[in-house]
Amino acid sequence: MKAIGYAHSHPIDHPEALLDLDLPDPAAPQGRELLVEVRAVSVNPVDAKQRAAADPGGKPRVLGFDAAGVVRAVGPDCTLFRPGDAVAYAGVVNRPGSNAELQLVDERITGPKPASLSFAEAAALPLTTITAYEALFERLRVPRLARPVQASAPDGAAAVARGGDAVLILGGGGGVASIAIQLARQLTGLTVLATASRPETRDWCLSLGAHQVLDHAGDLPAQVKALGLRVPYVFGINRTDAHWGAICKLLAPFGLVCVIDATGGIDVQALRPKSAGLVFEGMFARALFQTPDMAEQHRLLAEVAGLVDAGRIRHTVTRHLGRIDAANLRQAHALVEAGTMRGKAVLEGF
Predict the structure, then answer these.
(1) Does the model's pTM come out above 0.85?
(2) Which architecture characterizes domain 2-125+291-348 according to CATH?
(3) 213-267 pLDDT, tens per residue?
(4) Residues spanned by CATH 3.40.50.720 within the chain?
(5) Number of H helices, E strands in the chain
(6) CA distance 67 to 89
(7) Which residue among 55, 211, 267, 326 has its CA within the 20 to 30 Å range from the CA of 230?
(8) 130-280 sits in which CATH class?
(9) Residues of the chain with CATH 3.90.180.10
(10) Domain named Enoyl reductase (ER): which ranges (predicted)?
(11) What is the rounded distance in angstroms from the CA atom of residue 121 to the CA atom of residue 128?
C-alpha cells in the first residue's frame, strides 16, 4: 500500500522529513478492529511534534491522527460498523497512523462520517472534536443544556449577559478551539469567550459562535472585568504557560482550568487561594490505556456527527492541500508548526 512516513526526525524543510513509502497491507482485523480504506486525512500539532521529537531510528513510521474513509473489513467482535460504512476517527499514537491507504483502528474510538460532509471535510473533525468535547464536558464538567440551542447568527457583545457565567477558550483560531467554541455555544448556556490577536482570527471566532473575542496580547483580567462576567471555566489550548498569571487572576473561586499543551514552569500553587483546580485533557488516554469506557469516544463522535448533519456544528477546513503525499504533508506540517493557522488543513486521495 502507499503510505507517507519518516525514518528519522528532521526539520520540516529537510527533504527526508516525510517520505513516500510502499508498505505491506495491514493484517486482517482482529477483535474490535476495523480495516479502513483511508480517503482523506488532516494534520494536527501532534503530527509535527511526533515527527520532530520521536525518532524511529531508521525504521519507517507512519503518522496521522485524523482520517475519514470506508470500512473494508471488520474483526470478529465488531458490533458498531460493517463493511461499506463511512467512518471518521483519530486513531492512537502507539499504532500506525492514517497517512496510508489502509489502517486498522478500534471501532470504539471510531465515529460515523457525517452524511452531509465530504470525506475531506469529515477528516478535519475527529481529534479536535474528541479533545474539545472531553475537555468541556468531562474534565471541566461544564453543565449541558437539555437540548442544543437553535442555530443562529453570532451576535457578539449583545449576547453577553452581565454577571453571568462564561467559559474562556484560549487560542480561539486553532483546530481544537474552533470546535470548542461551537460546542460551548450549542450545548451550554454559558457566555462563550475566545481569545485572538489578529482581525482575521477574531472574525473566525465570532463566525463560529463566540459571544466575545478577547485580545490575548492585552490584559485578559481587565477585559473580563469590563464585561462583568464570572469565569469558572478556562480551556487552555495554546501557550497556557504564558497566560498563567492572567488565568489565575480572572478565574472565579472554585473554578477549573483544563489544559492540553505543555505547562512547564507554571505555579500551580497560584490556584490555592481560590480553591481552584487544574486538569489535563489527553484524547488518546482512553485508547492507550484501554479504559472500560473507550466506546464513549464512538458515542460522542456520533453525537457531533448528528449536530453537523442538523446544521448546528460546521466543519473547520480552511486549507485543502491536494492529494495525500509526502510533499503535500510537508506543507501541512509547516503550516501547523507556524502556529498561525485558522481551522484545519486536509489532504484527500492517494
Answers:
(1) yes
(2) Alpha-Beta Complex (3.90)
(3) 999 889 999 999 999 999 999 999 988 888 999 999 999 999 999 999 877 788 9
(4) 130-280
(5) 10, 16
(6) 6
(7) 267
(8) alpha beta
(9) 2-125+291-348
(10) 17-347
(11) 13
